[in-house]
Model the fold of this input.
Amino acid sequence: MYRSHTNGELRINNVNQEVTLCGWVQKTREMGAMTFVDLRDRYGITQLVFGEEHTKTAKTLGREDVIQITGKVIERESKNKNIPTGEIEISVTQLTVLNKSKTPPFTIEDNSDGGEELRMQYRYLDLRRTPLRRNLELRHRLSIEVRKYLDSLNFLEIETPYLIKSTPEGARDFVVPSRMNPGQFYALPQSPQTFKQLLMVSGYDRYYQIVRCFRDEDLRADRQPEFTQIDCEMAFVEQEDILNTFEALMVHLFQVSKGIEFDSFPRMSYADAMLNYGCDKPDIRFGMTFNYLTDLVKGKGFAIFDDAETVIAINAENCASFTRKQLDELTDYVKRPQVGAKGLIYLRCNEDGTFKSSVDKFYNEEDLKRWATQCNAKAGDLILVLSGETSTTQAQLSALRLHLGNQLGLRNPDIYAPLWVYDFPMFEKIKTPEGIIQWHSIHHPFTSPSEKFKNLTKEEILQIKDLNTFTAQAYDLVINGTEIGGGSIRIHDKKTQSIMFELLGFSEEEALAQFGFLMNAFEYGAPPHGGIALGFDRLCALFGGQETIRDFIAFPKNNSGRDVMIDAPATIDKKQLDELSIKVTI
Amino acid sequence: MYRSHTNGELRINNVNQEVTLCGWVQKTREMGAMTFVDLRDRYGITQLVFGEEHTKTAKTLGREDVIQITGKVIERESKNKNIPTGEIEISVTQLTVLNKSKTPPFTIEDNSDGGEELRMQYRYLDLRRTPLRRNLELRHRLSIEVRKYLDSLNFLEIETPYLIKSTPEGARDFVVPSRMNPGQFYALPQSPQTFKQLLMVSGYDRYYQIVRCFRDEDLRADRQPEFTQIDCEMAFVEQEDILNTFEALMVHLFQVSKGIEFDSFPRMSYADAMLNYGCDKPDIRFGMTFNYLTDLVKGKGFAIFDDAETVIAINAENCASFTRKQLDELTDYVKRPQVGAKGLIYLRCNEDGTFKSSVDKFYNEEDLKRWATQCNAKAGDLILVLSGETSTTQAQLSALRLHLGNQLGLRNPDIYAPLWVYDFPMFEKIKTPEGIIQWHSIHHPFTSPSEKFKNLTKEEILQIKDLNTFTAQAYDLVINGTEIGGGSIRIHDKKTQSIMFELLGFSEEEALAQFGFLMNAFEYGAPPHGGIALGFDRLCALFGGQETIRDFIAFPKNNSGRDVMIDAPATIDKKQLDELSIKVTI
Done:
């Protein structure tokens, strides 16, 4: 061992001990004949004092040099109350430079002077910074706690294969050419979905795995081509059992890692979430729920409202004093292409009880008062109104609500508001690039319909007018407006599964080719089962109080899917390509 | 919840309780008006009794049907002491068939009637069998214990990427075409070697990960293209620290999972292992070590020995009574192509003190007595001798030794004999297919030479005559003749690393292209570090008392790298290939 202690370990009661420490030179300071060095490792910082006999060498130490010292622990004269080792320092008697360091391209401080790209390129240096280290420590601690908790409930962690089969469902697969089976490819799993269902068929009634998943998507901000999920499945359970089990897991994690106690999480149907928040993952840290003014505002000659399918308002409490500029900024916000509204109507509920709106021309004081009543607005509040096609308007107003929530400081990252959203619809209709309307699973094609729809025939299902009312036993865990996970009760009988595949436009042949092994398995005694998957990167970021996942992953990729540190992906030898029986076509 | 209890849970003190159970029908037996059903789940088997009113339905139950029953726990008349629930049975009042099962293609019993291939195809049914379930439970338990133990020592589990960069070193990489970076490929890691070394540079001085690794090798028996390892690395340590740390981990695992106590593991240098066992992973559950007769046997006119570089013998104790047929079988064994000896010389030490050898023509009683003395043989023992080029003869005799060990029952899977082998050579010379002699890393190119060789120049190294004497700080953990893991102290300075790359025939350009990021990282304060990786599949098999890893992996691949259950790998759409800018060339 190169050291007797770490740099976070020594306290006042170690005074007079001889110790050996190792670490990186954080900084050096000269004071007369003495040199002070802050020595850093993963555990903390310890101050070293070099007296006259060593100060000459000490002066030559540069930032990030790796050294080993031996010396005596002494009490500091001026104590540093900010660090746990701040009461002592080491009077150095021996110094060995283990490795010199070039000057790092950015400072290894809590707030580095390095830009994003430079820090990604030198990720191994960026990871030395305390904030990143704390993130990875948090990640480790959470994974340990997840496993400990699920193990205590008799869940088995079972590893599933990474070299599997490509499926046409959902996002694009990464594929892996097989040298031993020329012309054939493995796929990397987007999730272990089918394997965990097979494990239920095998009788492993409580399965989990902290597992890497892969999706070859065009990367939006804060998506990674490889990500980690806590993947879980249970047999002989109903939706209620799954919600309770994983709510208890989350309560445990909040308790041990944040010291926050939760009794239980609120629940909201998908329909209510859309109605009141315009969004299936509402941030319920603040109210500002939707008020439908459609019937109130029609027939007063204001064409925009008259022509709209829906008119919805939110009440920004105590914001009547917003300036023209602030209102213009909000209007600009909703008009940006990402939101896509045509304009924003406001109604100020003045402190004196009068009203001032941007549509005073069409609505009198009485009309506006009715708006305010509908919105539960009081004097001093500001009502903001959008209109148009229902689902579009809901989405736009949801964006505005979150924007205002940020602006008004209602989204404090230290406050956690978990929520179960349930009763998701089974399907949505999407238009293919070729203009064909296709049914598409909201969750995935193994999701069970809600109890009351369970025994419908294909023909009965096709007669359902509003597809949103055809609900599934599917649920999401949402925290602070972020979807942390989701799952469903699965179909466990072949008949229902066949109907669903038909509705999704899989021919029997395609379904058999892709999922034949699962459908076959279902004929050999599949138990009722269901599960959930939680995004582990996202969960870590949330518990770390941050929005982006990148700094909770040791070696993330950039938005082009590149690892700029190792410079991957890269070209490979022709010999390698030949062995794999493939050719690059560009 | 579909059940109140599992099938392994009910005991005599539950009598009179009303319970609801779920599970699979293991078997049914009719006895007059009654029907008995063994109901199985992951936790055990519970006997159900259907009285007159339900026996009609009960009789229709087939093997592996999934049912739910409600009934009263009653005491059994004839108790079954072999199972924990054997004192009770359930008098069923309500039966629901949750899912019918087709007749499974093989029996779900401890010893199934299904062949290997059929069971692989229906792996989800094979996994229902108790022996496989126990294997996966053992695997889960070991992974929990590994994590718990390493966590208690401040090791952090840090996930490293699976989409990395192809390296020319060692086995073939699996590659993944990048759609977003056309013509470029990721590689799947053969191990997280470089990332764990980067983490040491980053200051995470105790890292581990239970991680999947990938190797596109022609699969020998009991190799898998994807396998799991316990990957570990430490900084500011010497070889001794690593051996002690992971010996303690293994001692812990033996204790908690097998109830076996170890104080410490014996250690043996690579040179001694080769000398005494002819093998770098000796099975030390039994002796039968090598005796070198070379000097004793020369010059007596027996040309085979006279021409041999080395003559080595083992002493099979108490085997003088081996029949002619048994000796012929041993001769056939060493002559098979996998072993490759030309013949086998024996010497019987008869009970009456006389000797009988297959070379009596050349050696008199006095000569043979000297052989026996050299081999520590006593009356009743059998000496077996091979000769030829030293390393070839060692390997052949090692094979014979293990073969005899098996034959004589000296390799009991319930006895565990762990061993550290250390001081491996740095390099071996191999001949390329083109006939060029190349230096090749025995461990890997980041391995540090032993202390005494650390500061040699390239020229000094090239002057070392016997490459085997140029040792590395590399070590293997061997248990019962199986390599369970290995590791090394790494090179942490760029200068030594450059010399090693040169010796391995990497041009500076190649080394930079492949490992540039690591060599760069070493310039920014790399600490002294080293590590180890343990084969987790192999470890599980060993603790499970079995030789093959396949049944310790939930969904393994066959010897052609195929998953016959899901039928992967498979062809993919032309559209998918086009998007990836690749073409199949066969």
